[in-house]
Amino acid sequence: MSGTGAARRLGRAVLGARARLGWVHLILGGALLMPYFLLSQVWVGVVAGRGNVLASPTLTLASYAAALPLAAVTGLFGLVRPLSVTAVRALCGVPGDLLADGPARSWGSRWRAAGWWTLHLGVGAVISGMTLAATPMALVLILVPFSATLRRAPLGAGWFSSAANPYATPFLGVGLLVLVAVSSAAAGALLARLAPVLLGPTAADRLAAAEERAADLAVRNRLARELHDAVGHALSAVTLQAGAARRVLDRDPEFLREALAAIEETTRRTVGELDTVLGLLRDGDPARADAAPAPTLAADLDGLLARTRAGGTTVTAGQDPGPAGDWEQLPAIASREAYRIVQEGLSNALRHGLGPIALHIRVHTPDGHRELEITMTNPPAQAPPASDGERRRTSGGRGLRGAAERAALLGGRVEAGLHEGRWRLRAVLPLGSANTPANPATPSTPSTPAGGAGR
């Protein structure tokens, strides 16, 4: 039984699906070497003074040897590696994670890809030659006992004569086929073993892949923050607005109309923002994430405060310097991130706070550098019982972490926690020199928010 199992394994290794795909891969390599071989034939023929190089085995081998350096030179092109990797993944059974993606970026990876290209084409040419020469010969030898014409043909010389022993030729033909199959399987296994070595990712490839994953993760985090801030604030505001409307249903129709209008406006805006973010997720285009329209201080600060007040919460706002129109002078990214930080602060206060909210936004110039400072305070919530606390705390602190990430994007910081008996959220966003336009698009090292892990 063990012998039968070994024979089956050997048969699969030589004639199985993977071996057949490996043979196709080798034949492709032989075909790719043909242009180089034809070019080298011309050179060898000129040097040797022979018109037909193929008539001489020595000159044929010399042409083959001269074709390999030509193939190696073209293997240095960056696009050779992704072409080779695609073929190896499809035909050699090599796991994809062992191979590099994309063009070769460094000279080291280019030389390794050139080595693989030369090896593939060189070995593929040998197997292609064996297949083209030995297979027809093997079929003829197998048919010799059944054809008088073939028995009279000069199939060999010296030690071999089909006329002398015609019934031995089928065994020779089968032997030739076995030789081709075993050689092809061995060559395919060799290439499959060497593919991760020559086509595997280098340190530069791993770094580029890590940077690409980090960029993709940053975009996903950005979209997650947008969803959290927009939808979370809308749900908090709508819940309070609906509750306030229910309480005054019979007593204050005017307030009821204002609350319902605020609910309608809040949900309409949130559906639009949700549709934008979901569209970006479907498209999968990171470049569009920062280009997506988003509310800003200049465009919607007053509307944000009005919708919050419509739920019955008192919000006092102070701005320095002057009216809301001055916020149009802010850099777009700073105005957008500041709006989201204010929105998160309001949502946080509505979910967890008690009593009125005091918001103050100002632009000041300490040490010649302009900064946008946002300060929001409200009475803290009373500590609930443990069971209620687990039920009420549903945000997991993601909102404050998101606000800290937004501030860190601009090189700023967020502080959140108890301050003089009140809960305070304070964000500082640098805007650049007082005499030089700010360039907030370059992220700085994130700062750790003080006391920001609570709400």
Detailed description of the structure:
- By secondary structure, the protein is of the alpha+beta class.
- The chain folds into 2 domains: 2-201, no CATH class; 208-433, Histidine kinase-like ATPase, C-terminal domain (Heat Shock Protein 90).
- The chain has 13 helices and 5 strands.
- It has helices spanning 2-15, 17-48, 57-74, 80-91, 107-143, 148-152, 169-199, 203-247, 253-283, 297-309, 332-352, 386-392, 398-409; strands at residues 315-320, 357-364, 369-378, 413-419, 422-433.
- It has a 5-stranded mixed sheet.
- Helix 1 (2-15) packs across helix 2 (17-48), helix 2 crosses helix 7 (169-199) and helix 8 packs across helix 11 (332-352).
- The chain is elongated, with a radius of gyration of 38 Å.
- The model is unreliable at 383-396 and 436-455 (pLDDT under 50).
What key phrases describe this protein's structure?
alpha+beta; 2 domains; five-stranded mixed sheet; 13 helices; elongated; disordered C terminus
